[in-house]
Write a structure and sequence with these properties.
Structural class: alpha/beta
Helix content: 25-40%
Radius of gyration: 22 Å
Bound molecules: adenosine-5'-triphosphate
Number of strands: 11
Pfam family, one: TrkA_C
GO molecular function, one term: monoatomic cation transmembrane transporter activity
GO biological process, one term: potassium ion transport
Distance between the termini: 52 Å
CATH superfamily of the largest domain: NAD(P)-binding Rossmann-like Domain
Strand order of the largest sheet: 3-2-1-4-5-6
Oligomer: single chain
CATH class of the largest domain: Alpha Beta
Number of domains: 2
Protein name: Potassium transporter Trk
Length: about 230
């Protein structure tokens, strides 16, 4: 019988370039999760500030190809480009990283045009934190049932909704979510307990958090008519 090898949880190697509020928070979090993270900034004070929250901290100008090459940046699996104000530096850095063969380059965009350019030159993931957070907060403000909102594409989202008394005791079977609304209930959260892929007859209780995925129009319809 073939022996099954237990997959060891691997430590992954990350680098964060630009230690402003965004890059700094990514760096701290990766470090606190036990990953190896190299913190890079051209500003020496920033480098010193993040030394305790990184595996290595290094002062370097990331637009300088040779300095990224000599650090061995190609050996990092994920590199986060968190340079904001200097759009030119952010673009150049992303280009150098893709040229060096870094498999996953995540770049922070400052505005829509910056986002488009980063996409074009091969950034693997482009994030626009202020814009994304603004959208999420707008959804929270509009409806007190929407707890969180994640854009999956222009038309599809994943949202967390608070179950009201209107659905207390209802189940997937009685709600006809797929048939009537074309949406999918991924999980029911009850306090700290998370019921992923709930069965057709598992009851929803008032106050539960429903994690639902679907087309924005269908989600809105469900929220308005049912909850
Ligand atoms: P925040 O995340 O705080 O909103 P921001 O978008 O305003 O940041 P900046 O403050 O412009 O971004 O840049 C973040 C960091 O990136 C700064 O600490 C800056 O020193 C660093 N940085 C800018 N250009 C480079 C570069 N070429 N090489 C390395 N670090 C750089």
């Amino acid at each position: 019988m073939a022996k099954r090898h237990r997959k060891q949880k691997q430590k992954r190697q990350f680098a964060v370039i630009g230690l402003g509020r965004f890059g700094g928070s990514v760096c701290r979090e990766l470090h606190s999760m036990g990953h190896e993270v190299m913190a890079i900034d051209m500003n020496r004070e920033k480098v010193e500030e993040y030394r305790p929250f990184s595996t290595h901290a290094m002062q370097a100008d990331s637009t300088d190809e040779r300095s990224l090459h000599s650090i061995g940046i190609r050996n990092f699996e994920h590199v986060v480009v968190a340079i904001g104000d200097n759009i030119q530096a952010s673009i150049l850095t992303t280009l150098v990283l893709k040229d060096e063969g870094v498999p996953h380059v995540w770049a922070k965009a400052q505005n829509h045009y910056h986002q488009k350019v980063l996409d074009k030159i091969g950034a693997d993931v482009v994030v626009h934190p202020e814009f994304d957070m603004g959208k999420r907060i707008a959804h929270n403000i509009v409806s007190d049932k929407v707890i969180d909102f994640i854009d999956l594409s222009d038309d599809y989202s994943m949202i967390e909704l608070r179950a009201t008394s209107a659905v207390d005791g209802e189940t997937l079977n009685t709600l006809h979510l797929r048939a009537d609304y074309g949406i999918t209930l991924i999980a029911i959260k009850d306090g700290q307990h998370m019921n992923v892929s709930p069965g057709p007859d598992e009851p929803i209780r008032e106050g539960n958090i429903l994690l639902v995925i679907g087309h924005n129009n269908d989600l809105e319809r469900f929220e308005e008519k049912v909850l």
